[in-house]
Amino acid sequence: MLRKLYDWTLSMAEHRHALWVLAFVSFIESSVFPIPPDILMIPMILAAPSRAWLIASVALVFSVLGGLLGYGIGAFAFETIGQPILESLGKAEPMAAFNERFNDLGFWAVLTAGVTPFPYKVITIMSGWTGMPLMTFIVTSILARGIRFYLVALLLWKYGEPIRDFIERRLGLMFILFVLLLGGGFYALKYL
């Protein structure tokens, strides 16, 4: 089933309303859909490099809006369903401690999930569930998704088809290394 979804998503890159399909996929990927918008972005940008920035912007805006839906799912479904269950099991206190730890790392959690292959939807829902400050979530989501989508657009716009394999196979690893180096740099500045 996942392969069919992937193939369908890829086939939509050639559709005459591909930009709207990208908006839809970017929106739902941030909370429930398993296929990332990059699958659509890559062939769309290769077919029309002059639209690279527009395509990246659509992915960014709708991904962040979809992230807000994921945040809402975490915020409202947890309070109405999850919390009473945890309280009845005597697990409310450990969850409160988890929420505090998650929110202490909130910027890094959202940044990491926003630029790496880690499912962004997990962090959007957890951010709402743990009560991360909404403004922190929004700003970090814009930063993270912007880095990811605009870098893909830049690479494809500049290098075209030859860079496609690198993006599809190795860019996720490069993003992970970038986040680790960035986090390590901040850690070194703070503690060294």
From TrEMBL:
One of its GO terms (cellular component) is plasma membrane. Residues 35-155 form the VTT domain. The chain crosses the membrane at residues 20-40, 52-78, 134-159, 171-189. Pfam families: VTT_dom (PF09335). It comes from the Bacteria. Keywords: Membrane, Transmembrane, Transmembrane helix. The keyword Transmembrane applies. This is DedA family protein. It comes from Roseobacter ponti.
